[in-house]
Amino acid sequence: MELSEFNKVAHEIVDWITDYYRHIEDFAVKSPVSPGDIIRTLPEAPPPVGEPMEDILEDFKQKILPGMTHWQSPNFFAYFPANSSYPSLLAEFLTASIGAQCMSWETSPAATELEEQIMKWMIGMIGLPSNWSGVIQDTASTATLAAFICARERATGFSVNEEGFPPNRKFRIYCSSEAHSSIEKGAKIAGIGKQNVIRIPVDINLAMIPGELEKQIQSDITRGYCPLCIVAAIGTTGTTAIDPLLPLANISQRYKTWLHIDAAFAGTALVLPEYRWMIEGIELADSFVFNPHKWMFTNFDCSAYFVKDKETLVRTFEILPEYLKTAAGNRVNNYRDWGIPLGRRFRALKLWFVLRSFGVEGIQERIRKHIQMAVWFEKQVTQHPDFELMAPRSMNVVCFRYKPLQINDQNRLNRLNMELKERLNGTGNIYLSHTKVHDCATLRMVVAQTNVEQRHVEQAWNLIINTAASLR
Ligand SMILES: *Cc1c(COP(=O)(O)O)cnc(C)c1O
Q1: Residue 169 pLDDT
Q2: Each residue of 204-241: pLDDT tens digit?
Q3: What's the 435 CA to ligand 1 centre distance in angstroms?
Q4: What is the mean pLDDT of residues 127-133?
Q5: Are 370 and 445 in contact (CB under 8 A)?
Q6: CA–CA distance from 92 to each of 44, 304, 358, 376 (Å)?
Q7: Which among 83, 18, 60, 23 is positioned nearest to 396, based on CA atoms?
Q8: DSSP conformation class of 64
Q9: Range 440-464 average pLDDT
Q10: Cα–Cα distance for residue pair 390/396, rounded to 1 Å
Q11: Residue 372 class from Cβ within 10 Å (0-12 exposed, 13-18 middle, 19+ buried)?
């Protein structure tokens, strides 16, 4: 492809993108295709000779687009969002254009120094202690894995990195019964073992019970286990429940464990001063992760990982083969040593574009609006005789189910709600996902999409009550 043709097609693509966003609500939010529908349309082998860009773009529209779920649709209320925004998208054009691999300071000084500065901004924006350090990771799963490996190295005087596990050291990691699956995955990869992730019971608000945690730790110690790490969830994935950080932090101090905070989704709410109570005790923690790629309008992937002690992080991950030695050496940050992969994308640029384009107040305003719309939705649920709230709403996630007065059988209610979800998603007008709360099938209304407005939430509610009524 010649540069002149690139220029022509690039302009067409920008027009296509603009059109896509203008009409995004016309697409079925959740792709309606069945397994195998897309692969059937693809040739058995790659083309032996190059094809015109025109044909490739046409196939993108005809074959690929129907198999996409439209995460940027304002009618997307499922899972947690993977928000983008126009400024973020523009920055990704530039990142891809320069195509830098930002593993060390020397391989792109501006990428390193912008990341350092943006992470400082974020520390101020969300109220973390000012002496902490931050680094961008691909996902929260990776950040949590990094926390476990650092905890392991700190607890063993950095000897597992050198010699592998000592024979009689049995580590344990603690989290609530509601915690994310990435904790088990991290424990598997870090060599701790999934069976050594102990899930602590939760209270009526689905938050970890500190007394239960302490009992478990004491009993583990008497049986020869070594408590390694406590993971506190600020905003669980099911219901955005908030573990009580200060009591958990005091326990982590008493038993000298690492304290990691998983705020993957809800961390963004900390830009609002009225939510800072959620991290009371943060100065006693060791690490914290949240995903700007969920609720902070920065397109996937961009996970912000913060640590109290960057020396432990770097000592755990650093490598220095001859071919990576540079003149700048230790006077700069070499982010390859702050996490698992060597190669790194320039992710700070999109965060910089987002923060500058929205401004802190612009972000606060939109987050508050999301929460207010969720409050409205919650009110509809509680006032409707055939619906009920399944968990307390802490922010912008409403957990609810359809429960007509005359139906009390739990299995029947579970089936009814799963059917309601399928029907709703089948309309293409809305996309919801579910969870289990106290073993009951529960629908989640996540009001967090970048461009969602009150009218979308109202349309969603009307569709839900009408579809539910038609089920009977
Ligand atoms: C989404 C989520 C994760 C995983 O995030 P990734 O960035 O996809 O790895 C972890 N913890 C919680 C609480 C989450 O909501």
Answers
A1: 85
A2: 999 999 999 999 999 999 999 999 999 999 999 999 99
A3: 15
A4: 97
A5: no
A6: 32, 17, 16, 35
A7: 83
A8: I
A9: 98
A10: 14
A11: middle
291 close to ligand 1 (CB < 6 Angstrom): yes
DSSP line for 209-228: -HHHHHHHHHHHHHTTEEEE
What is the number of other CB atoms lying within 10 angstroms of the CB of residue 284?
Answer: 17
Tokens 């070499």, residue? 334
> Which phi and psi angles does 34 have, rounded to 5°?
-100, 160
Q: Is 105 in the pocket of ligand 1 (CB under 6 A)?
A: no
Residue 184, ligand 1, Cβ within 6 A: no
Q: What is the Å distance from ligand 1's center to 213 Cα?
A: 22
Of the candidates 452, 431, 439, 445, the one whose C-alpha atom is nearest the C-alpha of residue 382 is 445
- What single-letter DSSP state applies at residue 67? G
Residue with tokens 């509680």, as numbered in its chain: 382
Q: pLDDT tens, 347-365? A: 999 999 999 999 999 999 9
Per-residue confidence band for 324, with pLDDT thresholds at 50, 70 and 90: low
Pocket lining: 197 vs ligand 1, CB cutoff 6 Å: no
pLDDT digits (tens, 9 = 90+) for 53-93: 999 999 999 999 999 999 999 999 999 999 999 999 999 99
Whether 301 contacts 293, CB under 8 Å: yes
Q: Is the CB of 303 under 6 A from ligand 1?
A: yes
The per-residue pLDDT for 328 is 65
- What b/e sequence results for 325-336 when a residue is b if at least 16 CB atoms lie within 10 Å of its CB, and e otherwise? eeeeeeeebbbb
Q: What spacing in Å lies between the alpha carbon of 286 and ligand 1's midpoint?
A: 18
Residue 325 has pLDDT above 70, yes or no: no
Among 175, 180, 189, 298, say which to mutate for ligand 1: greatest number of ligand atoms within 8 Å of CB.
180
